[in-house]
Specification:
The complex is a heterodimer of chains A (433) and B (469). Chain A has 18 helices and 5 strands. Chain A has helices spanning 2-13, 15-20, 29-47, 74-97, 105-123, 132-158, 166-183, 187-211, 216-241, 243-246, 266-270, 275-293, 295-305, 307-312, 317-340, 355-365, 370-393, 399-414; strands spanning 53-57, 70-73, 129-131, 255-256, 272-273. In chain A, strands 2-1-3 form a 3-stranded mixed sheet. Chain B is mostly helical and 469 residues long. Chain B is built from 21 helices and no strands. In chain B, helix 4 packs antiparallel against helix 5 (77-99). The chains are: A mainly alpha (433), B mainly alpha (469). The interface between A and B is large, with 70 and 75 residues.
């Protein structure tokens, strides 16, 4: 019923677009990007000194079976990768000219190979070992709060509430997780309280933006300030006066999944994690199913796209938004817990350090889709981890450039250079009957 | 009331179909900001009161003496009250002495120093706040004050120590460099918004982070920082490029404050008296109508953010050339976000922004003394700030907390469903009685700000809650 309403509304909304889609002009943006990157990879290889070697470490400390250091001759390895990249770019150009839709594997494979080519070049004759598994583990660790945050933003924005306060929710989650875990001396209690903190911030957000219809972005910005101030204040008073009681370190134990965790390289990265990370897999999976296959998801999207239509079929728009933002807050709170109990750290001032904003960027880059947001968050986490690794082994590329990368990519994305991003139609608009 | 309300409530609905959601949100933003402007200064004062009460709760909760006296509260309630009063008096009087007038100071000059410190802190806040206010008036949310301040500071500081020029010229050139840096950073967002429709909120947030890494990168480059050490810290700005001191030694007040005053006047002229400012306000009120009236909307959009960025950049420049003298990674602190608060608090009006900048500067300056004397962490200033803005953004909530009548003189009447929530937020359950009576005697429902749309469209919300499916 409401599905129908929504789709007709979409048709009405864009009559011009509908007729214009007959023959779409070929988009050369992606093929050209691939070609440029492939050319860059060739350039990398050309600048590698002859006879250089690149070392990769493929195992972390306590693996089931140790893989020795992998030593590659840089130039031949670089050439192989560059040739494959050129071939892939050629494939993309051919597909584009024949109007064949490129599948997701192409950009993924291209990305992985390009990064490898980059690493071969960056590590050539540096005398340092590139710790591949450590780098990937670090990437996942950096991504976890981003993924939780992006899911939080997604749940809210799909129902039409812009959530700039993801940062505040992460921070509140981190704070309460650390405090609860410390007081009850159990990390799992932190896991119980973290979503409550996030949900409370979410509740404040909807209290002001849905009930009083204050601009959602303003409320979000102010809530960030409020939570940074509040947690900072409490940290400087109670938590520093009596750290044994309030801010003792607690860590969620790692729970390796038997079998899976012993797969080389990806096993220790993906399946030797805390329950929080497994929860993250679960949440992304569930959201991906429920957002598009359940009554709740349909209603959420209806409320976010066309609240009036949703209202006429009896969906309570504002109630839906309230529930969703609070649910999102709880998810972000869990993500915040990763900063403290997930990594076994005590709470520190402003320890979320802008992750909420990157999560927001990841959600936009992922086009408000759970899988897209997941990939974008992983990309951001990976580029940061890569930046950190490069900063330690020392390469010609400044690590700051890589740390900037997520933000630059996001600007390109919202400016329309990386595909068109379209937010839910009613995003940011309070609903009044 | 409710019949007319439902009809009016329909009117805003037809337009969303064809507009992009962000454009829609912007229309709402300018409306919301206009509403802010219409509410009286009473709300501002009351918002400050609420913030101070919230702050008081936090101060008491963290104080050990209070905690101790609370443990024998039932045996000796007066002891608790006395201690609480004592603690609060100390904290807030330190806040006042740090911000305005220090009656405990050894000399007369020292006793007025706090006021000059307030001015010092307020300079970048006012300048950047003015930039953000221009954005608000033009219907744009410029979250990028932080990045623009950093860029302004980065370029002004660099020009300040890298060049050697005569006294007057050097300062002017460094300031101009700061303006240019901020304007470029704001301009990126402005041009992208004008040309591609990229949402300025997202772009400016991203630019903030890029600016942080850019400065971090520059502070590792020897050609940039010119110190010869590995510290991520630049060399000091030349004397010829420093903003001159207004009150001589012992005071930090510098010519930046004069710049802030001039900028306030300039922005007032720009917004209220110039053609360009009229265009800015027009695209803020209604971009469609502005386009129909022949205003070049993309150009004006880009210009708004260029000017906003330039002002924020000037703020960053004044901060470096007048107060900090050298660049570090955290040179901008949280100035950019505080500037948003300043603009909101000042209701996007130049004079209001100036006063709000002074208020926040005072909170900063007072917070420093409060931290030093009573051990109350300065983070509480952030909480005060946030509460003030939240309260000002939701005047109905403030009126609900203080049981005030509606802004246009009608008695305040609220919806039944709203009552519980608001009271929970206000935390004043003790005085629920009169509340119930007003609500039951006149069953109508309108507790919204002056805007016809929101006040009237509120009412059917409560009466015809659910048509069912």
């Amino acid at each position: 019923m409401s599905e129908q309403t929504v789709s007709t509304a979409a048709v009405q909304a864009d009559p011009l677009k509908q007729t214009a889609t007959g023959v779409r002009p070929i988009s050369w943006k992606y093929p050209i990007t691939y070609a440029v990157l492939a050319a860059l990879a060739v350039l990398f290889v050309l600048t590698i000194p002859a006879g250089a070697r690149t070392h990769f470490r493929l195992s972390s400390g306590g693996d089931f079976f140790e893989i020795p250091l992998v030593e590659l001759p840089s130039r031949p390895a670089g050439w192989i990768l560059a040739v494959i990249l050129v071939a892939l770019a050629g494939l993309a150009i051919w597909q584009a000219s024949r109007r064949i839709r490129t599948r997701l594997w192409l950009p993924l494979l291209f990305g992985v190979l390009f990064v490898l080519a980059f690493l071969v070049w960056a590590g050539a004759d540096r005398g340092a070992v590139i710790p591949l598994v450590t780098m990937l583990t670090g990437a996942l660790a950096l991504s976890v709060p981003l993924i939780f945050g992006a899911m939080c933003g997604l749940v809210g924005e799909r129902s039409g509430v812009i959530n700039i306060a993801i940062e505040a929710q992460l921070l509140a989650g981190a704070f309460l997780a650390a405090v609860a875990a410390s007081v009850f001396t159990s990390a799992y209690m932190g896991l119980v309280f973290a979503p409550i903190a996030g949900a409370l911030v979410g509740a404040l957000l909807v209290f002001f933006s849905v009930k009083y219809q204050v601009n959602q972005i303003i409320v979000g910005v102010v809530l960030n300030v409020l939570i940074i101030g509040l947690t900072g204040y409490l940290f400087s008073t109670a938590l520093t006066q009596n750290p044994e009681l309030w801010n003792a370190r607690q860590q969620l134990p790692r729970l390796p999944i038997p079998g899976l965790s012993q797969i080389p390289i990806i096993g220790p990265v993906l399946f030797n994690q805390t329950i929080l990370v497994y929860l993250m897999y679960l949440i992304v999976g569930l959201l991906n199913i429920f957002l598009f296959r359940s009554r709740w998801g349909l209603r959420t999207r209806a409320v976010g796209e066309h609240p009036k239509a949703a209202d006429t079929v009896g969906i309570k728009v504002n109630r839906m938004r309230v529930y969703n933002v609070i649910l999102g807050g709880a998810i972000a709170g869990l993500g915040g817990a990763f900063f403290t109990i997930g990594q076994g750290l005590a709470f520190g001032k402003e320890m979320s350090a802008g992750a909420g904003f990157i999560a927001l960027a990841a959600m936009i880059l992922g086009r408000w889709h759970p899988i897209g947001a997941l990939l974008a968050a992983l990309l951001f986490g990976f580029s940061t981890s890569l930046g950190n690794t490069l900063a330690t082994i020392g390469t010609p590329v400044p690590s700051e450039a890589l740390l900037m990368l997520p933000y630059v990519i996001t600007i390109f994305a919202v400016a329309g250079f990386v595909g068109r991003v379209r937010p839910p139609a009613a995003n940011g608009t309070p609903y009044v009957k | 009331m409710s019949a007319s309300g439902s009809q009016q409530g329909m009117t805003p609905a037809p337009k969303p179909e064809h507009q992009s959601p962000w454009a829609e949100a912007e229309g709402r933003l300018s409306r919301a900001l206009r509403e802010l402007g219409q509410t009286s200064w009473v709300v501002t004062v009351l918002a400050v009161v609420v913030a101070l009460v919230v702050g008081a709760v936090l101060i008491l909760a963290a104080n050990r003496d209070v905690q101790a006296s609370l443990s024998y509260f039932f045996a000796q309630p007066t002891a608790f009250l006395e201690t609480a009063f004592q603690v609060l008096r100390e904290a807030y009087s330190a806040l006042f002495r740090g911000a305005v007038f220090d009656w405990q100071a050894p000399s007369a000059a020292r006793s007025i120093r706090p006021l000059t410190e307030t001015m010092v802190y307020s300079v970048p806040l006012i300048l950047a706040g003015l930039g953000i206010a221009i954005g608000f008036r033009s219907g744009m949310l410029n979250i990028g004050g932080q990045g623009q301040i950093i860029l302004g500071a980065t370029s002004a500081g660099f020009l300040g120590y890298a060049l050697s020029l005569p006294v007057g010229l050097h300062v002017l050139l460094a300031l101009a460099g700061g303006i240019l840096g901020g304007a470029i950073w704001g301009g990126i967002a402005g041009v992208l918004k004008a040309r591609t429709g990229a949402n300025e909120v997202i772009v400016t947030i991203m630019l903030n982070n890029i600016a942080i890494y850019l400065l971090a990168y520059l502070l590792q480059q020897q050609w940039y920082k010119q110190t010869g050490s590995n510290q991520p810290l630049s060399s000091s700005v030349d004397e010829s490029a420093q903003l001159f001191s207004l009150l001589g030694s012992g005071f930090r007040l510098h010519a930046g404050f004069l710049i802030a005053i001039l900028a306030t006047l300039g922005v007032w002229w720009l917004l209220e008296r110039s053609t360009l400012g009229f265009e800015f306000r027009a695209i803020g009120e209604n971009p469609e109508a502005a386009r129909t009236a022949g205003i070049n909307v993309p150009k004006a959009t880009a210009l708004v953010l260029v000017i906003a960025g330039g002002l924020a950049g000037l703020g960053g420049a004044a901060h470096v050339l007048g107060t900090e003298y050298r660049l570090a990674g955290g040179v901008a602190g949280t100035l950019g976000f505080d500037a948003i608060t300043v603009a909101l608090l000042g209701r996007s009006k130049p004079l209001g922004t100036f006063l709000a900048g002074l208020l926040l500067g005072g909170l900063r300056a007072g917070g420093v003394l409060m931290q030093a004397q009573t051990g109350t962490p300065i983070d509480i200033v952030l909480v005060l700030q946030a509460v003030i803005v939240l309260m000002i953004a939701a005047p109905p909530l403030v009126r609900a907390i203080f049981f005030l009548p509606h802004a246009d003189g009608r008695p305040r009447i609220r919806r039944r469903s709203a009552r519980r929530k608001t009271e929970a937020a206000a935390g004043t359950s003790s005085s629920r009685q009169p509340e119930l009576q007003t609500a039951s005697t006149s069953g109508a429902s309108s507790a919204e700000p002056p805007s016809a749309e929101s006040s009237s469209s509120e009412s059917p919300n409560s009466t015809t809650q659910e048509p069912g499916k």
